[in-house]
Amino acid sequence: MTDLYRLLPEEMESLVIELGQPRYRADQILYSLYYKFPENISEIKQLPAAFRDTLRDKGYTIGSTKEVHRITSKDRETTKLLLKLQDETPIESVLMQYPSKKLFGHPRSTICVSTQVGCAMGCVFCATGQMGFERNMKAEEIVGQVIHFAKILAEKDQHITNIVFMGMGEPLANYQETILAIRLLTHPRGFGIGQRNITISTIGIISGIEQLAEENLQIGLAISLHAPNDKLRKWLVPTAGANSVMELIKAGQRYFLKTGRRVTFEYALIEGVNDSIEIAEELAFLLRNNGSHVNLIPINPTAGDFERPKRKNVIEFERILYNSGINCTVRVEKGTEISAACGQLRTDVLDKYNNKRN
Ligand code: SF4
Asked: How much distance in Å is there from the Cα of 56 to the middle of ligand 1?
């Protein structure tokens, strides 16, 4: 079986020609996939019924995702979905909306997609990391998450403005499928979102960052640093290499030089672990004159023992970086009450399900 969402527009064209159809059939399929969001081939009404039969007979399909659980924050700005893939595997995706500053403007709608089921990186503060790794996701399964939300938003006359690869899994550990998903999503005849509206977040797979810099893409890169020294980083990210901090900073600089895109260092702030004044000063010393951007993320409480830092510590941490000339923001807290950190909803829902069965 081949999912039609897996085919790049050029491949769609080759397919229709191979099946004896005129070239414009490819555009009819693409238009339907990316603007009408059909759940199966029968719903692509522009195609003759005989051609739809041929596609099915040749093993083509549309592997849409099924929504099994939806949870929306009280302010209605964060919606988290538990989706089931074709093989019934549950995964998470999140929509975060930021109201427009214009009177009747559309909100900025960012989708956070997953690239793996579970994750092998084992970060100690992350619910997905605690699940372990199940499997890589296919490009069409990554695209399927975006399509699912695009359909929901289209019903409200809204659209997706940004996509971040920050959900379950490490995108650069599923490199080929992640890049194919980006090419499908950014192709002008595919989903058509701008490359600059996409950000990949990595825990720091150096070879993947190097490879990404060579792809001739204009996507943003966020590197999750979480600590200014190797000892603390190795404890928080057990799979980090022995010299990961300096290597990551250099990899970020090379990515910037190659692509011209500024790199963001993500820093999950954890109460009593990496939020002290001394650590802020160490980080400020490390990143001075680097030209990067630091995004501080006070963690959502997870199933583990980690706590969100006190507000005064966050402000002080930010001030120390700022006074060292480092461009720094604190991530707007969204969806705390709906388990918005990656892996939390899947864990919560599966726990409830298993408790019911026991
Ligand atoms: S934080 Fe990211 S890389 Fe680390 S375990 Fe969680 S999903 Fe994997």
From this structure: 38
